[in-house]
């Protein structure tokens, strides 16, 4: 026979359990409420119509990066969106210490040049979705290492509202080389990237490097001039062949322009240059982690 004392004891246990469950539920709700949201429920995404705002930042990221250019979407400060990050790595001719005297050299080529000339589109449409980049263009003091690129990614994650599923790495000549070398240094690095776009990349190709990128299913589009006297086009060709040998998915893309000279980047980065209806920026935005 169950006594009144037993009943009261069971009721107390039940009430304690309900209180504990309620506390867990409340704590769980509080935690969920602070999670970032790429497109807040309170507002619909409005495509950018004004050019990105590019600023010279005289701040060290690490010992090899003394400054950088940062381009933010025009409405960055008035939204809560997370934006795709495009990291651009310059060539060897643009090495410098990031000072006011040297940093402007980075504006010679690629996306930072286009942005400074107001020729970089404020909005890219891919698959019915609209995107605006955060573009970070560091100035290296000497030939960069994979660790330098990792430092840039860590810095960007901690300072700006970036969509970490959409980090894209590109560069020309030396910068194209570090694009290859970072993506192939290890699988963890490759998995941080949504796609890479090396242009006339100065990096030694190997099957081992390709295997690393293939394991991460990293989208790759390599571009090069056929008769490049500075960095042979065989580097890009061999990288893509090695990726195909590794059965990389998606299949790597290769563009060899049938011209001489080292400068494949003016055409490659031109937003008006398209293949299959997409420029290089739209091609990258097809992919995310």
Q: How does this model look, in words?
A:
This is Phospholipase/carboxylesterase. InterPro entries: AB_hydrolase_fold (IPR029058), Plant_Biomass_Hydrol_Est (IPR050955), PLipase/COase/thioEstase (IPR003140). GO terms for molecular function: hydrolase activity. It holds the Pfam family Abhydrolase_2. With 289 residues, the protein is of the alpha/beta class. It has a single domain, classed as Rossmann fold. The chain is 34% helix and 22% strand. It has nine helices and ten strands. The protein has helices spanning 4-32, 110-116, 146-159, 174-185, 187-191, 207-215, 234-245, 265-269, 280-285, and strands spanning 53-57, 65-72, 83-89, 124-126, 129-131, 134-140, 162-172, 195-199, 221-227, 253-260. The strands form three sheets. It has a six-stranded mixed sheet, sandwiched between helices. A two-stranded antiparallel sheet has the order 4-5. The chain is globular.
Question: Secondary structure elements and their pairing?
Answer:
Elements: H1 4-32, E1 53-57, E2 65-72, E3 83-89, H2 110-116, E4 124-126, E5 129-131, E6 134-140, H3 146-159, E7 162-172, H4 174-185, H5 187-191, E8 195-199, H6 207-215, E9 221-227, H7 234-245, E10 253-260, H8 265-269, H9 280-285
Parallel strand pairs: 3-6, 3-7, 7-8, 9-10
Antiparallel strand pairs: 1-2, 2-6, 4-5
Helix pairs in contact: 3-4, 4-6, 6-7
Domain Phospholipase/carboxylesterase/thioesterase: 84-267
Organism: Thermoflavifilum aggregans
Keywords: Signal
